[in-house]
């Protein structure tokens, strides 16, 4: 399976209440349960006017299906090609 970052334009996202965020999260989980195929929502980052979601799926088409069933906007889907962090800077001896 591949890892994807999904960019969703959502004006006012940063002002969503905890209850609204809970509803969005529950909808996402419900949709994943309905899909009947391997699919993992890792987490989402809420910014001022966007939400960035990290998903693991077989294909971009599966990510689009999740969005369609949950009625979530998708503005961009990007496959993650590599992950780096501070440990990446350590040279192998």
Give a quick set of tags describing it:
93 residues; alpha+beta; Alpha-Beta Plaits; 4-stranded antiparallel sheet; 31% helix
Layout of helices and strands:
Blueprint: E1 2-9, H1 18-35, E2 39-46, E3 50-57, H2 60-70, E4 76-79
Antiparallel strand pairs: 1-3, 1-4, 2-3
Helix pairs in contact: 1-2
What's the short story on this structure?
The protein is an alpha+beta fold. It is 31% helix and 30% strand. The protein has 2 helices and 4 strands.
CATH fold-type name: Alpha-Beta Plaits
Largest sheet: 4 strands, antiparallel
Global morphology: globular
Secondary structure tally, helices? 2
SS-based structural class? alpha+beta
Q: What is the CATH architecture descriptor? A: 2-Layer Sandwich
Q: Mean pLDDT across all residues, rounded?
A: 94
The CATH first-level class comes to Alpha Beta
Count structural domains.
1
- Indicate the percent of residues in helices: 25-40%
Q: Tell me the name of the CATH homologous superfamily.
A: ORF SCO4226, nickel-binding ferredoxin-like monomer
Please trace the helix and strand order, writing H or E for each element: EHEEHE
**What oligomeric state is this?**
single chain
The total of beta strands comes to 4
Q: Largest sheet, order of strands side by side? A: 2-3-1-4
Report the sheet-strand fraction: 25-35%
Could you tell me the radius of gyration in angstroms?
A: 15 Å
Task: Flag low-confidence runs.
Answer: none
What is the distance, rounded to the nearest whole angstrom, between the alpha carbons of the first and last residues?
Answer: 31 Å
